[in-house]
From TrEMBL:
<dbReference type="InterPro" id="IPR011330">
    <property type="entry name" value="Glyco_hydro/deAcase_b/a-brl"/>
</dbReference>
<keyword id="KW-0479">Metal-binding</keyword>
<protein>
    <submittedName>
        <fullName>Polysaccharide deacetylase family protein</fullName>
    </submittedName>
</protein>
<keyword id="KW-0378">Hydrolase</keyword>
<dbReference type="Pfam" id="PF01522">
    <property type="entry name" value="Polysacc_deac_1"/>
</dbReference>
<dbReference type="InterPro" id="IPR050248">
    <property type="entry name" value="Polysacc_deacetylase_ArnD"/>
</dbReference>
<feature type="domain" description="NodB homology">
    <location>
        <begin position="22"/>
        <end position="201"/>
    </location>
</feature>
<dbReference type="InterPro" id="IPR002509">
    <property type="entry name" value="NODB_dom"/>
</dbReference>
């Protein structure tokens, strides 16, 4: 893909949504391994909640059936690169190539496009990265306003408290499918947030506000 980056608008950083509505988006990132995806999907299905999954191409290639289930059950899919590099440390062209390789893997295996949602690996970004993400065709760089830090494998209670303590309308919650207690924490958090009057939406739906 040959794109003259000076004519492409940089990707827009999204941390949360500006909304007066009690809406919240749960997001789940993949990397290289799979641990709790089936359990997370079971929980989301039980509560009739749609979430946004940011998938790496290498993960989709390794776990195609799980990836297909995510799409089949109506969840939103975003691009999380091909193999999770820190994009601050690679060149513009390498960033674009990596993003498009991830996109191709997702399209080939799942049959959907992850555009226009991209999440930078490690949440690592700068102006160069945003320009490259835009050049790859992605309008939005999706960050988060609540980080559960579940990749460090804290207890279920800790994950839930990190969500409930901060939750407000327009929040984007970061979780991972490789955690140990993420599925259980998702179950408890959803029940509590619903009791507080929150509605669960995808990132794409959140961006409409």
């Amino acid at each position: 893909m040959n794109v003259d980056s000076q004519y492409i608008k940089p990707s827009t950083l999204i941390i949360n949504a500006n909304t007066n509505h009690k809406q919240i988006a749960f997001t789940y990132d993949s990397g290289f391994e799979d641990n709790e995806t089936y359990q997370i999907l079971d929980v989301l299905k039980k509560h009739k909640v749609k979430a946004t999954f940011f998938l790496t191409g290498i993960w989709v290639e390794k776990f195609p059936e799980v990836a297909k289930r995510i799409a089949y059950e109506g969840h939103e899919i975003g691009n999380h690169s091909y193999d999770h590099p820190d994009m601050v440390n690679i060149s513009h062209d390498e960033i674009v190539k990596n993003i498009l390789k991830g996109e191709d893997a997702i399209k080939k295996i799942i049959g959907v496009t992850p555009c226009p949602l991209f999440r930078e690996p490690f949440g690592s970004w700068n102006k160069k990265v945003f320009k490259a993400v835009g050049a790859a065709g992605y309008k939005y760089s999706i960050y988060w306003s609540i980080d559960t830090i579940d990749w460090q494998h804290p207890t279920t209670r800790v994950i839930v408290n990190r969500i409930l303590r901060k939750a407000q309308g327009g929040d984007i919650v970061l979780m991972h499918i490789s955690g140990n207690h993420t599925a259980e924490a998702t179950d408890i958090a959803i029940r509590n947030l619903k009791a507080f009057g929150f509605k669960f939406v995808t990132v794409g739906e959140l961006l409409k506000h």
